[in-house]
């Protein structure tokens, strides 16, 4: 900033050891040197006059410092008072950018004081400029009169802030205005009695941009974020919010950087509904609250010199009262949550690792946000694992590993269980046909025991014990070949499980999987095609299971194809075919088109009602869905539209259309949105239709606000 450079100028003069006045150069100049005889201050002009303590430079007068230089038509330097007065088209440059402009500048070096009239300053990074009738600089602060501020063109700005007076703290990069008016093309549209904000990119505590809206059901919506940044290693945002017809609350976001430069992120919030609102919509919860935390850290307790040379912590914690919590806070909370439909998953893992051993402690907690009670959902709290890394056994190509786990399944209502598992595979591998074929044979010794407690009346569950010795056989090949016009890779794999000895006693509910109790066969294949520039053009993957002892011996066939026609067009097709039903159980198709100024997609998703539930991959419930979207960019205009349509139930789940136009300093957007979302009532989740118009106005970088109007 200019203030800092002024200080440097004053210090340079006070430390100078020699002072020269030269008329031998092409232009008359005055130079001042430090103790190392390096020039730290230079005063040049086309014509220079010296009378006692006054030096007058006329014609292209220039004052040069190590970091900046100032040019003017005339400059007067008083060597006794150390005051420099520059007049006539004064321009101060920092680096290669114009930083400050005025008609007259008075600089008192010793007092660190200057007076500028008129005043102009611009930040080359943000584009923010400040213009004033006059300015006084005193001890790091500019006091300015009749101020105009904007980031638009100086000649004809779209918007600007006008104020009677203000001040700018160059150390804090903080601008304060009294009685500012926001003007669009000189027409006042908004008045503030007082406004204070950052004029740079450094983190500072203060108020952030408010959000103002209106909804038919919730009334006037107002949120005012408050930002706290006391230290470089952590900050926090508190967001008090109010919905006049519904209630009020507060949300917050917390960020910490640890000594390994890893971020801990947390989100928390509370919102309380009024009695009338809860009764109108028959809501299950009057209070909506939640907490989220994400943190990943390696080398938490270990050292490379220790036996366990590596450890790690992974936390993805999300606990919320119901699905409505995510609608009342910002989109970031929902995007970062592990939410599959209505199922919210929390994970907390820790591991220790050495060259030979691995120890892990895991916890998983599931919440069904569309259910009035989560008491019957089985939770894994905790799971402990010891794993012996694969190692050689006696001879070449013979290996072994060992794995032991104990899992605690708990819930308030319903049976609970503690399961212990031990597994010892012996692996023999061999390659044939010049390494084109890789074969492995593995006898596997497996044992598990399940102890039940809190058993409901009428449910008879005895302690389950299962011991087996089964065999796993795998054969695979990886082939790569380069043709004249393309390259091709092919992987083929067969995996077969053969039961052997088995001893099974007691009860095992469907929740527990028992490996090796039946014959299973899996075929999988994948191939990739590349062009001559090694760019992927086509990928194809297939997988087929056979359950040789089940009633339905043939499992689902999965076939996935991705085709990249060029850098613009791509196609995805992923199909699951159920042989038992002789029809498709699940399918996804999507076409993407991406160009520099145009993006579009069209897709289809289908899941039949008989499809096997798999919570781990978000597979549950019937779905019939078409999605499409397009976005087109023009020079200063962006048009967009998207939709999601349930063709079986014949309704639009969501759709929106809108536009946004922007220049460097101003952005304006409007979109109309329709969406159907769940709300938890006393009778379970109920669908609610919401339509609203969202108006976005941004006076960059000073003011950004969203105005939401409900149907």
From TrEMBL:
Q: Which InterPro entries does the annotation name?
A: LipoPS_assembly_LptD, LptD, OstA-like_N
Could you list this entry's UniProt keywords, alphabetically sorted: Cell outer membrane, Membrane
Taxonomic classification: Bacteria, Pseudomonadati, Campylobacterota, Epsilonproteobacteria, Campylobacterales
Organic solvent tolerance-like N-terminal domain residues are 69-177
Protein's organism: Helicobacter turcicus
Keyword Membrane in annotation: yes
Instruction: List, alphabetically, the HAMAP family matched.
Output: LPS_assembly_LptD
The gene from which this protein is expressed is lptD
Spell out the Gene3D superfamilies in the cross-references: Lipopolysaccharide (LPS) transport protein A like domain (2.60.450.10)
Name it: LPS assembly protein LptD
Q: What is any Pfam family matched here?
A: LptD_N
């Amino acid at each position: 900033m200019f203030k800092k450079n002024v200080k440097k100028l004053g210090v340079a003069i006070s430390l100078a050891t020699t002072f020269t006045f030269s008329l031998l150069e092409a232009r008359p100049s005055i130079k001042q040197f430090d103790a190392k005889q390096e020039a730290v201050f230079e005063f040049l002009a086309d014509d220079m006059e010296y009378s006692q303590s006054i030096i007058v430079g006329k014609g292209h007068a220039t004052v040069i410092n190590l970091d900046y230089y100032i040019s003017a038509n005339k400059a007067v330097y008083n060597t006794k008072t150390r005051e420099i007065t520059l007049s006539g088209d004064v321009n101060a440059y920092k680096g290669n950018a114009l930083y400050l402009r005025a008609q007259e500048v008075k600089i008192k070096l010793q007092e660190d004081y200057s007076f500028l009239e008129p005043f102009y300053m611009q930040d080359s990074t943000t584009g923010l400029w400040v213009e004033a009738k006059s300015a006084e600089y005193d001890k790091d602060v500019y006091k300015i009169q009749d101020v105009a501020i904007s980031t638009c063109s100086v000649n004809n700005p779209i918007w600007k802030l006008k104020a009677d007076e203000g001040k700018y703290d160059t150390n804090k990069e903080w601008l304060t205005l009294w009685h500012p008016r926001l003007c669009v093309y000189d027409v006042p549209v908004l008045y503030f009695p007082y406004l204070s904000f950052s004029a740079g990119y450094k983190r500072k505590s203060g108020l952030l941009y408010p959000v103002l809206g209106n909804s038919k059901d919730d009334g006037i919506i107002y949120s005012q974020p408050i930002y706290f940044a006391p230290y470089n290693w952590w900050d926090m945002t508190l967001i008090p919010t109010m919905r006049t017809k519904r209630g009020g609350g507060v949300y917050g976001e917390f960020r910490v950087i640890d000594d390994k430069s890893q971020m801990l992120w947390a989100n928390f919030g509370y919102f309380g509904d009024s009695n009338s609102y809860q009764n109108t919509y028959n809501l299950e919860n009057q209070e909506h609250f939640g907490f989220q935390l994400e943190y990943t850290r390696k080398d938490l307790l270990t050292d490379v010199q220790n036996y366990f040379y590596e450890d790690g912590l992974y936390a993805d914690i999300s606990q919320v009262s119901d699905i409505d919590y995510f609608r009342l806070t910002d989109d970031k909370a929902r995007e970062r949550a592990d939410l599959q439909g209505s199922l919210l998953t929390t994970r907390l893992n820790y591991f220790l690792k050495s060259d030979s051993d691995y120890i892990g402690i895991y916890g998983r907690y599931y919440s069904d946000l569309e259910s009035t009670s989560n008491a019957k959902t089985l939770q894994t709290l905790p799971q402990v694992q010891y794993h012996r890394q694969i190692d050689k056994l006696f001879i070449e190509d013979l290996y072994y590993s060992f794995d032991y786990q104990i899992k605690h399944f708990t819930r308030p209502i319903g049976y609970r269980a503690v399961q212990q598992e031990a597994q010892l595979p012996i692996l023999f591998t061999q390659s044939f046909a010049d390494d084109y074929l890789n074969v492995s044979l593995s006898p596997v010794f497996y044992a598990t025991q399940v102890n039940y407690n809190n058993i409901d009346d009428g449910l008879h569950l005895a302690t389950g014990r299962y011991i087996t010795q089964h065999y796993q056989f795998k054969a695979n090949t990886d082939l790569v070949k380069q043709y004249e016009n393309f390259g091709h890779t092919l992987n083929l794999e067969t995996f077969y499980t053969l039961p052997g000895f088995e001893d099974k006693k007691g009860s095992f509910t469907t929740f527990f999987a028992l490996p090796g109790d039946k014959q299973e066969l899996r075929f999988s294949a994948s191939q990739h095609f590349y062009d001559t520039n090694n760019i992927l053009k086509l990928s194809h993957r297939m997988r087929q299971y056979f359950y040789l002892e089940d009633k339905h011996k043939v499992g689902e066939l999965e076939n996935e194809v991705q085709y990249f026609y060029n850098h613009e067009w791509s196609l995805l097709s992923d199909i699951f075919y159920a042989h038992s039903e002789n029809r498709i159980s699940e399918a996804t198709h999507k076409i993407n088109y991406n160009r520099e100024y145009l993006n579009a997609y069209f897709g289809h998703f289908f899941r039949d009602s008989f499809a096997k539930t798999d919570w781990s991959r978000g597979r549950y419930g019937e779905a019939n869905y078409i999605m499409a979207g397009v976005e087109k960019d023009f020079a200063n205009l962006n048009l967009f539209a998207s939709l999601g349509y349930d063709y079986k139930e014949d309704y639009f789940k969501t759709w929106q259309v809108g536009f946004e136009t922007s220049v460097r300093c101003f952005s304006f957007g409007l979109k109309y949105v329709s969406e159907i979302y769940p709300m938890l009532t006393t009778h379970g989740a109920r669908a609610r239709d919401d339509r609203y118009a969202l108006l976005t106005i941004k006076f960059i970088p000073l003011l950004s606000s969203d105005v939401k109007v409900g149907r």
